[in-house]
Amino acid sequence: MLWIMAAAIFAWLAFREVRAARVPRRGYSQPQPVFKPYLIACIALSAGFAWQPVKYWRFERLLSAKATQLADGRPARVHCNSVADTMFDGEQFAAGHANIETGQIVFQHGWCATLMDYVDNPKTANPEDFFALHMFTHESMHVRGESNEARTECQAIQRDARAAMLLGVPEALARKHALDFYFNSYMGRRGDGWMSAQYFSDQCAPGKAMDEQLSDSTWLPLYRTADDQ
Hints:
Helix content: 55-70%
Shape: elongated
Largest sheet: 3 strands, mixed
Organism: Methylomonas rivi
Protein name: DUF922 domain-containing protein
Strand order of the largest sheet: 1-3-2
Oligomer: single chain
């Protein structure tokens, strides 16, 4: 909101400068010529402040479209919380959350920027960057209709590579990152406490009960390895 307000203020100052060249300002009998450096500075500052919200608005639209695809066509709408949004969010301690009924997905402040960084620079991604991608997939599974966290998490695991590719990440990197997350993060939860355990199931593995046998599954390289053996 502050970015938009700043952009609007400088846009108004630029408009006022142009208008003064046509209509005399109060206290002047004649219009005043435009002071070009001032006008250019106001326009540049307005555009600069507007770019940040426009960039996030475009990213929200992209995420909403791709989340809808991941949710098998159920409409999804992604919102990136600002600092103020997060402060007043009833689930502010969750990095993200989704409403199954409305299809709204919310990322708390900072996580959209992290996901944006991952999409822009997947070659230099760290585990936190990919966690933002996985969270996007996870919340999309809630929109798809699943409420049980363990099943939701497993459905997301199997679609992480798909989600990354939908956002433009090259397939080889998408599959590597998704498998790394599965082995290093997901499987590492087996010995964690209750909060983490509710997102884990030993049936979330190739050939186990939660395996959906997706044609583009994150586990696809593991199937191929098993076939070769």
